[in-house]
Amino acid sequence: MSDEVSRKTRLRVVTLSIVAGALILGFKYYAYLLSGSTALLSDAIESVVNVVAAVFALGAVIFAEKPADREHPYGHGKIEHFSAAFEGGLISLAAVMIWWEAVSALHAQLNGTFHLKNLGAGLAVNVVAGLMNGLLGAFLIHMGKKHRSRAIEADGHHVLSDFWTTLGIAAALLLVKFTGILWLDPIMAMVVGTLLAYTGFKLVRSSSQALLDMEDPELLDKLVTVINQVRPVDVIAIHEMRTLRSGRYTHVDIHMVIPEFYPISQGHDLAESFGKDVIAGVSLDGELHTHLDPCQRAWCRQCGVEPCSVRQEPHSEQGPITVESSTGAGSI
User: Fold this and answer.
1) Domain 3-211 classified CATH 2.30.30.90?
2) Tens of pLDDT along 165-185?
3) Which pTM value belongs to this model?
4) What is the C-alpha to C-alpha distance for residues 231 and 119, in angstroms, rounded to an integer?
């Protein structure tokens, strides 16, 4: 899939998220108006966050597509992590608002001024909205992973968590309907608020780690697996491997040990072809930068290149490259 097709697809996905989110919000707020349920109001408040976050994600996706320039040599992709962190903050704010409404409703219930009406109708409307949320969330997560958009994927996880929240609320309100225990309604809203706060915290934490370029063990494992699959015999060792994610684009830096007698042109061609094979094997949108290190006759036991006029020891060690060896300093 070309970059232009992928860009247009991401924009369509986020636009769909905004439209669908607004429609779902309308259903949920109508469910609250029908019933007066605080739990259903909490669900509607979460949907407000979904719509606002989707609008912000649209701006992030558009900005992330800007090409690298003099001020941003690694591109603008990290804005998507800011988008995800912003969404986490909105979710946490929604949790506070839900708790406020729930405490107020519980106080009113204790004073005998809290009443529910048409709970069955409101619950039915809300369940329909929840099912729409479930489909939308699964779709956003799939498209976010497929097109390597952190903003879209984060939005999908939030929308999907909203779906599970709706199911929990439906179960609690069915209990309220059949038992008449009204205080279960604001208590369920408090549970929703607590779960939202936890979701927001996780989203802010993961986005902060990405912004700080925290090591990605899963990506390193994939890189090492492919390196072992495509490595030619004259790539003697890999060390000081580092990765940097900028939106959907990934930059990989490595030090590559090659025979010291190779001319510059041969070393350059080897690095170019090896880098392309690795990036293609991991299916990354990105690039691999290589620093060439001459073997200095110190890697003879690991080197299988023949003939070699400078060999000091026979080739005796043939093992795979590991995450530890490829990310280490490459001491001899």
Assistant:
1) no
2) 788 788 888 888 788 787 777
3) 0.61
4) 64
